[in-house]
Amino acid sequence: MEIQDISIAFEGNSVLDHVRMQVAKGEFVTLIGASGCGKSTLLNILAGVLHPQKGSFFVDGQRIKGISSHFAYMPQSDLLLPWKTILDNVTLYAQIHHDVKNARQKALAEFPAFGLSGYENAYPHELSGGMRQRAAFLRTALCAAQIMLLDEPFGALDVITRNEMQDWLLRLRSELQKTTLLVTHDIDEALYLSDRILVLGGSPASIVKEIDLRNVVKSRDWLFAQGDLRKEIYAILRGKNHAS
Ligand SMILES: Nc1ncnc2c1ncn2[C@@H]1O[C@H](COP(=O)(O)OP(=O)(O)O)[C@@H](O)[C@H]1O
Ligand SMILES: [Mg+2]
Predict the structure, then answer these.
(1) Ligand 1, from 15, 31, 49, 200: best to mutate by most atoms within 8 Å of Cβ?
(2) How far is the CA of 41 from the centre of ligand 1 (A)?
(3) What is the pLDDT of residues 190-210, one digit of tens each?
(4) First to last CA, the chain
(5) What separation in Å is there between the alpha carbon of 184 and the centre of ligand 1?
(6) DSSP secondary structure string, the chain?
(7) Radius of gyration of the chain (CA)
(8) 20 to 30 Å CA-CA from 203: which of 9, 124, 177, 188?
C-alpha cells in the first residue's frame, strides 16, 4: 500500500499535511501520534469514509477511491451488536454478503486461537473487555480484505489485559499473514508490536520519524530496555521535536 501526500482540513483547520508512507505486503506498521493529531482521520480516509482534499493512495499500484474491498477496518470502539451472539457478530460481514454457512465454519475454527471457545452463543455483555476486543478483532481478521486497519484496538483495556492482548497479537501475527496498519498513542505498544513505527508529529501532522524494528526479536525484556527510543518518541508526541 502506498499513501501519497494526503492532506485534509476540517472547516479550514488543517489536520493532516502531506502524509506519505508505504507499507509492504505482510508488514505490521504502527502509526503513533498524540490524541487528536489525526490518526483516526487517516484510517477513515483509507477506509473510504472520509475524502482527503489532497493526495491519493494505492494498493498493488491501483489507485483507490471511496470504499474498497482491500481494507478490513476495526474502528476505535468495538461496535459489537448487543442483540447478536458472538458467532453472529464475528460473521457479520458474511451475513451482509450472504455467505453465512462457510463463514460460520471458518469463524468457529478460529475461536480457540482468539480465546473465545465456549462463547459462540454468548452475547457481548457476557464477555470481559478483552474478550469483546478479541471478538471485534476476529470479525476484522475474518474479512477477506488483505489489509487490516486497527484503530487503538486495546485502548479501552486496563494495562494488564492490554499487555496480555499485545502478547497474544504478537503470537498471532505470523499466523494471520495480513498487512496491518495499527494506530495507537501508546509508545510501548508501538515498540512491542511493529516491524516499523511511523511517528505523526507537528500541527498539522505529518510523518516526522520512522523507526525500523524489522530485525528485532521482540520480548518484554527487550521492550523494557528501550529507554532512549521511548524518550525520543515521547519528545515528538509532546511536540518537542528537537528535545535531544
Ligand atoms: N468529521 C470531523 N469534523 C470536524 N473535525 C474533525 C472531524 N473528524 C476529526 N476532526 C478533528 O480532527 C482532529 C483529529 O481527530 P482524530 O483523527 O480523531 O484524532 P486522533 O485519532 O489522532 O485522536 C481533531 O482535532 C478532531 O476534532
Ligand atoms: Mg482516534
Answers:
(1) 15
(2) 6
(3) 999 999 999 999 999 999 999
(4) 33
(5) 14
(6) -EEEEEEEEETTEEEEEEEEEE--TT-EEEEE--TTSSHHHHHHHHTTSS--SEEEEEETTEEE-SS-TTEEEE-SS----TTS-HHHHHTHHHHHTT-HHHHHHHHHHHTTTTT-TT-TT--GGGS-HHHHHHHHHHHHHHSS-SEEEEESTTTTS-HHHHHHHHHHHHHHHHHH--EEEEEES-HHHHHHH-SEEEEEETTTBEEEEEEE-TT----HHHHHT-HHHHHHHHHHHTT-TT--
(7) 18
(8) 188
| Ion ligand 2 — residues with CB < 5 Å | 39-40
Q: Ligand 1 pocket by C-beta < 6 Å: which residues?
A: 10, 15, 33, 35-41
Amino acid letter, 224: F
pLDDT surpassing 50 at residue 68 = yes
Average pLDDT on 20-46 reads 96
Nearest residue CA, atom 24 of ligand 1? 36
> Three cell numbers at 81?
451488536
C-alpha of residue 176 to centroid of ligand 1, in Å: 30
What is the C-alpha to C-alpha distance for residues 136 and 155, in angstroms, rounded to an integer? 13
State the residue for C-alpha cell 499487555.
163
Whether the pLDDT of residue 97 is over 80: the answer is: no
| For residue 160, pLDDT beyond 90 | no
| Average pLDDT of the segment spanning 11-37 | 96
Atom of ligand 1 nearest to the CA of 38: 17
Measure 8 CA to ligand 1 centroid, in angstroms.
Answer: 10
